[in-house]
Amino acid sequence: SFKMPAAETTLHVICVKNIYNVTAVPGANTELTILDANGDATASPAEAEVGTSVQVAVKTDQGYGLETITVKAGANYLPISLVRTETDGTMIYTFVMPASDVTVATAAQKDVYTVQFVDYDNALLKTTAVQNGETVDETEIPTPAARAGYTFSGWEVFDNAAGTWSKVNDVKTMVIRDNTVLRACYEAETY
Question: In this structure, is the dihedral angle defined by the CA atoms of residues 161, 163, 167 and 168, taken in order, positive or negative?
């Protein structure tokens, strides 16, 4: 408010835009949701006021992990911080809304698991990394050392849930979905 002077007065009003769009661009194998002030999902694009904290929720498909999350305003990348991870694996991130429209984008990558090959006595023969849902590269499968009085007969896999070993028909076609231990199997030679 102001006090009107006794003479003719011109009032100039300058308006500044202070609400901009937030657009979600989820990558393959990710869900990306913009959250409102109550933490509820909102449509994309959503609107946010300059200087406010904007939260987004990210969840990857099973067997995938978050590779990147970016917030971009024009050609500039903005800092984004992880606030918390929910019990279902949803990650909540936050950033401060700039004075421009922004795009939030995600990318996922397959989880990578460790496959260990051990000999009959659990001595480590080789360790390799395999992406979720893939098979062990044939060149990564070791050849166990010769064992007097025995013939190598293949591999068995350790079942973590049951705590037991079970025979693998063909390790080259076995699909990896978790950290895995494979043990060499031998049969006694008969003469």
Answer: positive
Phi, psi of 3 (to 5 degrees): -90, 125
pLDDT tens-digit map of 132-148: 999 999 999 999 988 99
Percentages helix, strand, coil for the chain (3-state, rounded to 5) are 5, 55, 45
- Alpha carbons 97 and 7: distance in angstroms, whole number: 43
What is the C-alpha to C-alpha distance for residues 174 and 153, in angstroms, rounded to an integer? 16
Q: Is 33 exposed, middle or buried (0-12, 13-18, 19+ CB in 10 A)?
A: buried
pLDDT-derived band of residue 1, with 50, 70 and 90 as boundaries? low
Contact 64, 109 (CB under 8 A): yes
**Residue 62 token pair:** 């099973």
Residue 11, pLDDT > 80, answer: no
| Positions of E strands within 18-149 | 19-25, 30-35, 41-42, 46-49, 53-60, 64-73, 76-78, 81-85, 91-96, 102-110, 112-118, 124-131
Provide the 10 A C-beta neighbour count for residue 65. 15
What local confidence, expressed as pLDDT, does residue 8 receive? 82
Contacts of 181 (CB under 8 A, 6+ apart): 115, 116, 118, 157, 158
Strand order in the sheet with 112-118: 124-131, 112-118, 180-188, 150-159, 164-168
